[in-house]
Specification:
mainly alpha; 7 helices; RVT-Znf; single chain; Reverse transcriptase zinc-binding domain-containing protein
Length: 123
């Protein structure tokens, strides 16, 4: 409800959004402030830090998110045409990307189930 006690669609939206955020944090854990501080202090290009931040905040323009926002006609991956193009799928799970990661030193970290990018980044 608003400050004057009126319950609106906007109030319901934000109440639901806060519940979703809390549920994700409970399920996958939330990074502490120190994690974000370390991210911004990394000795790397600003665009890499920004990309990582966007992936962790689940704001990259992948078909699953674009479809949910009614921007894309489909949520299916445009590369493999088999699965929803979530952030973990686009970055790690797609059959065209997975072989590259399997050859890297991060292969064991990426064996997890479909989870938000943040859960990969904080391992």
């Amino acid at each position: 409800p608003t400050r004057d006690g009126i319950f609106s669609v906007k109030s319901a939206y934000w109440l639901g959004k806060l519940g979703l955020i809390a549920a994700r944090r409970h399920r996958y854990g939330a990074p502490n402030e120190g994690w974000w501080k370390r991210l911004w202090q990394l000795n790397t290009l600003p665009r890499i830090k920004h990309f990582t931040w966007k992936a962790c905040r689940e704001t990259l323009a992948v078909n699953e998110i674009l479809h949910r926002r009614h921007i894309s006609a489909t949520s299916i991956c445009s590369i493999c045409q088999q699965y929803n193009e979530s952030i973990p799928h686009a970055l790690f799970k797609c059959i065209h990307v997975k072989p590259i990661w399997e050859q890297s030193e991060f292969a064991s970290v990426l064996q997890a189930e479909e989870a938000p990018f943040l859960s990969y980044a904080t391992r």
